[in-house]
Each structure stands twice: as structure tokens, then as C-alpha cells.
Design brief:
Number of helices: 5
Number of strands: 0
Largest sheet: none
Shape: globular
Strand content: under 5%
Radius of gyration: 16 Å
Helix content: over 70%
Order of helices and strands: HHHHH
Number of domains: 1
Structural class: mainly alpha
Length: about 150
């Protein structure tokens, strides 16, 4: 298994760590930990793709597992945001519907021995989601810290 695929698996392994941290809403240290874990996981997304392309190590496993890891990570973060009333269930339903639709298209293509890699707009969507989540969790941590001081 090459390094980019190991980074993808590491991102998947960070999902339960993120869940542990995010399950303590509005506690400053836990929210900071959630923000840091999510940031680290997001950086592995950039790094695995960069290395796979640069070292010519793009694999079918990576094309499948990388978007799956992104979906697991971002969906989990949005679910915890919803429990804190920071994400509407309608918004989450739209995000999930889009992800299921894209996954369905990919599965149909795979049935025909074709792999559909993410395009530029899918990558932009993922980056924007990840930045939004990072800002949210750092913001919650900062707000919780200020609240605990006053």
C-alpha cells in the first residue's frame, strides 16, 4: 500500500477521534481538539492527492477511498453541527442527497469497469465544506473559552 492510500486510511481512522472530541459540545478544550483533529484530517486529504499525482501513485483504491473518506469526515462533522443547532436538517439532507447521487453515479460507472474521479467543482465543494467546518469548530472553541472566563 502506497503512502497516499495510507493517508486516506488515516483520515478514515481520524473520524472516530473527531467524533469523540465533537461529542462534548461547547466544552472549550474538546471543541479545540475537534477543530485540530478535523484540520489534520483535512490536510491529509490535500496531501494524499498531491502525493498521488506527483509520484504517479494514483490507484483505483485511492479514487474510491479518498471521496469516501471525505464524505465520512464531513458528514460526521455536519451531523455534530446539527446537534448543536448550527446546521439545519434540511441543509444536511441536501448535502447527503448530493453525496448519495454522486456515489450512485460512481457505482454505475464501476459496474462498467470505469472509475469516475472527482472533478474541479467536487474538489472546490470539499475544500469549502472543510474550511467551513474548521472555522465553525475553532469558533465554537473560542466562544466556549470566552464564556468560561466571563
Amino acid at each position: 500500500m502506497n503512502l497516499p492510500n495510507k493517508l486516506t486510511l488515516a483520515r478514515i481512522a481520524l473520524v472516530p477521534v473527531f467524533m469523540l472530541c465533537a461529542s462534548h459540545p461547547f466544552h472549550p478544550a474538546w471543541m479545540l481538539a475537534a477543530a485540530l483533529v478535523f484540520t489534520l484530517a483535512s490536510l491529509t486529504d490535500f496531501l494524499d492527492g498531491y502525493l498521488a499525482r506527483r509520484w504517479n501513485m494514483v490507484t483505483d483504491f485511492g479514487k474510491f477511498a479518498d471521496p469516501l473518506a471525505d464524505k465520512l469526515l464531513t458528514t460526521t462533522a455536519f451531523l455534530y453541527m446539527m446537534t448543536m443547532s448550527a446546521c439545519s436538517p434540511v441543509v444536511l439532507a441536501v448535502i447527503l442527497a448530493r453525496e448519495f447521487a454522486v456515489s450512485g453515479v460512481r457505482m454505475l460507472a464501476a459496474a462498467q469497469n470505469r472509475v469516475v474521479a472527482a472533478n474541479l467543482w467536487g474538489k472546490v465543494k470539499t475544500v469549502l465544506q472543510m474550511l467551513t467546518i474548521i472555522v465553525f469548530y475553532f469558533g465554537v472553541a473560542l466562544e466556549a473559552w470566552q464564556g468560561s472566563m466571563g
